[in-house]
């Protein structure tokens, strides 16, 4: 609980501060998301989801390809929620609950959402 | 927590039956039916990998993935476990300091008995594995027990499996002792329960996820998992036991693995081997 409140405060602070710089840092955010997506020690999303990025290496086939994300998730918040906890939609999902189990930080999840939202 | 778990288990049941398989039995002592589970599991894979003969499931991932099969056939031309087998035979036949040997501890002198392990021991009220009895035999005869995961225990077990090759697994769940069924049920629950930071169950990878890539890894079917153990695994560069593999897979869920030969792992082995009843012993094996 303690960790949760701290995290929530941190998120609130980040949101409060991010306003003016958000536009300028969009590219950075996407780059960060890209690293999170492909790095084995971070999101490791590539181990289950292929994506049409030339750096994709040994993509897995457990989950669907990350394609047409904007069409499939017109509401970006729904996309984020799926990543945060895939077991809401499917309790048996093999996809780890990325946010709920502290696998990535809230910022990293934001970044990975921006990254896949381009595809 | 309790309710979440039963919900998940219930959902597991539902999803599996959606795939059109024969009815799987439940997760309580009243509803569980091992024979129905075994037939349902066979039906599940036969539908998913149509055309693969049941008896081929002793070959794990190589039964269902032709490209991996090719590499493996090449590997099997010079079986990497040959030296371990020779050493295992020698160890098996070397008398203890008191003059007795392994042959004195086991039925039929320890030859051709692999297919009966693990079994429910009513006297002790627990599941006994072959490796466990190898060590008990040593201790009864005044010798130090061996380490569980690799080395001599795996080599002796390999030799004993070798003398049993071709015999169908015949794991029994004595009906007159409900504790045996409970042990099976505990093993089954273990297999289907999600665990670790990654929230993965054995079933996630070996049922739902079988023959789907996780990066470069391809999980195989759970049917036939124990038949060929112990194995020489290229990644290990040596021979290892089934519980060594359990430990590794358990760790892959990002949880702290249980120790080899723990009560839970022995029940898991009981469940998994019962599921493989009818398949033959083909250990020792070779795996990537």
TrEMBL record, chain A:
Residues 1-23 form the signal peptide. Residues 28-119 form the Cytochrome c domain. One of its GO terms (molecular function) is metal ion binding. It comes from the Bacteria. The keyword Lyase does not apply. The keyword Heme applies. Pfam families: Cytochrom_C. PROSITE patterns: CYTC (PS51007). SUPFAM superfamilies: Cytochrome c. InterPro entries: Cyt_c-like_dom, Cyt_c-like_dom_sf, Thiosulf_SoxX. Keywords: Heme, Iron, Metal-binding, Signal. This is Monoheme cytochrome SoxX (Sulfur oxidation). It comes from Marinobacterium halophilum.
Automatic annotation (TrEMBL), chain B:
SUPFAM superfamilies: Cytochrome c. Keywords: Electron transport, Heme, Iron, Metal-binding, Periplasm, Signal, Transferase, Transport. The active site is at residue 249. It catalyses: S-sulfanyl-L-cysteinyl-[SoxY protein] + thiosulfate + 2 Fe(III)-[cytochrome c] = S-(2-sulfodisulfanyl)-L-cysteinyl-[SoxY protein] + 2 Fe(II)-[cytochrome c] + 2 H(+); L-cysteinyl-[SoxY protein] + thiosulfate + 2 Fe(III)-[cytochrome c] = S-sulfosulfanyl-L-cysteinyl-[SoxY protein] + 2 Fe(II)-[cytochrome c] + 2 H(+). Residues 1-22 form the signal peptide. Transmembrane segments: none annotated. One of its GO terms (molecular function) is transferase activity. Heterodimer of SoxA and SoxX. This is SoxAX cytochrome complex subunit A.
